[in-house]
Amino acid sequence: MQQTLAGKNILLGISGGIAAYKCADLTRRLIERGAKVHVVMTKAAQEFITPLTMQAVSGNPISTSLFDPTAELSMGHIELAKWADLVLLAPATADLIARVAAGMGNDLLSTLVLATDAPVAVSPAMNQQMYQNIATQENIATLARRNMMIWGPGKGEQACGDVGMGRMLEPMQLVGLCEDFFAPKPLHGRSVVITAGPTREAIDPVRYISNHSSGKMGFALAATAAKLGANVSLISGPVSLATPNGVNRIDVTSAEEMYQASLKLAKQHDIFIGCAAVADYRPEHLATQKIKKSADNDNMHISMVKNPDIIAAVASLTEARPFTIGFAAETQDVENYAKDKLQRKGLDMICANDVSVEGQGFNSDNNSITVYWADDKKELGFGSKTELSQAILLTALGQID
Ligand code: C5P
């Protein structure tokens, strides 16, 4: 097991929700990755999972009360608050969230949250109606405003039989968020704007011309850039992908809309990555009514005009020009076409892949990429789009610095 959390001290605060039973597994997964875990439980949490279970899996005594002389002897509550590198409240019930929002210290867990200067992550878990309640929503917004991280909740079936928002994130999702939190942040202080997905060029009110781009590469880049600490904007064409955590998403439909959004945002960011499969042409005229099939016409002609080349326009900015990275999806002679594109569009870097090979590129979760810049190249090889995103961003960083 990779020791992604080696030496990290995590204070796990459990409050009284049914999801508390998942905390044993969560604790094991954190420890497996090298973390040290101390568990604090509210009185209600102990109705859902026993302190004995949590002690066995964490390997540490469980703290449950503010007024426990023996616990204060081993590690007092202020000491515990100082020990933590991260305080994770999971599950965080509506009641715990309300008490934290109000700044109360009426039990050990809420007192620890007041007493710590470690970052606090809150993983809400409650009935969907309680989650939607304006009081809960306002309390969560208050915590977010105070820079607490809000992890979840997820959506789905609930223990009470309801369906909706309010499920605690699964233990492995919380582990992933802890890993992201502790991961090095080489892009801290940088901003990245990424275009992703296809564009849709309308023919009439019901039809359009588009392509098979899934948006997966651009979304993986956005998620990874955010994870590496960048401030990320993602200009997305129509795709069916969830917005990555911490990413500012701008939805567009046509190339023209993507062009407008890109030129505006490019000037406000340090790095521009053109990952979208922008339609090269669009119908010259947009029919205002649905075009009808006619008995005497077996052929139909649509006159097309060229769309603006978004990335070339960004690369030719004379003021506030970002470091500009393009993509070249080719089916043959990849190196030559990629280098030609690099030069012709005035890019700083281009990521080239051969989309004629099955199992990589379009719609796949994997890709195989070589990066070219003016005087050199780097083979990043075959990998998941997430792994390649990290390699692309770190290669770009090497060129910028
Ligand atoms: O389509 P093409 O192979 O020229 O795409 C190469 C690069 O140019 C990609 O990064 C793509 O996002 C970008 N591009 C663009 N605007 C266009 C066409 C392509 O930004 N109209």
UniProtKB/TrEMBL annotation:
Chain sites annotated for binding CTP: G274, C275, A276, D280, K290, P308, D309, I310, I311, F327, K341, K345
UniProt signal peptide: none
Positions of the UniProt region annotated as Phosphopantothenoylcysteine decarboxylase: 1-191
Active-site residues (renumbered): C160 (proton donor)
Sorted UniProt keywords: Decarboxylase, Flavoprotein, FMN, Ligase, Lyase, Magnesium, Metal-binding, Multifunctional enzyme
Region (Phosphopantothenate--cysteine ligase): 192-401
Domain (DNA/pantothenate metabolism flavoprotein C-terminal) ranges: 187-393
Residue intervals of the Flavoprotein domain: 8-180
Catalytic reaction equation(s): (R)-4'-phosphopantothenate + L-cysteine + CTP = N-[(R)-4-phosphopantothenoyl]-L-cysteine + CMP + diphosphate + H(+); N-[(R)-4-phosphopantothenoyl]-L-cysteine + H(+) = (R)-4'-phosphopantetheine + CO2
Cofactor, how bound (note): Binds 1 FMN per subunit.
InterPro entries given in the database record: CoaB-like_sf (IPR035929), CoaBC (IPR005252), DNA/pantothenate-metab_flavo_C (IPR007085), Flavin_trans-like (IPR036551), Flavoprotein (IPR003382)
NCBIfam families associated with the record: coaBC_dfp
Role description: Catalyzes two sequential steps in the biosynthesis of coenzyme A. In the first step cysteine is conjugated to 4'-phosphopantothenate to form 4-phosphopantothenoylcysteine. In the second step the latter compound is decarboxylated to form 4'-phosphopantotheine. Catalyzes two steps in the biosynthesis of coenzyme A. In the first step cysteine is conjugated to 4'-phosphopantothenate to form 4-phosphopantothenoylcysteine, in the latter compound is decarboxylated to form 4'-phosphopantotheine.
Family recorded in the similarity comment: In the N-terminal section; belongs to the HFCD (homo-oligomeric flavin containing Cys decarboxylase) superfamily.
Matching PANTHER family: HOMO-OLIGOMERIC FLAVIN CONTAINING CYS DECARBOXYLASE FAMILY, PHOSPHOPANTOTHENOYLCYSTEINE DECARBOXYLASE
Protein name in the entry: Coenzyme A biosynthesis bifunctional protein CoaBC
Gene: coaBC
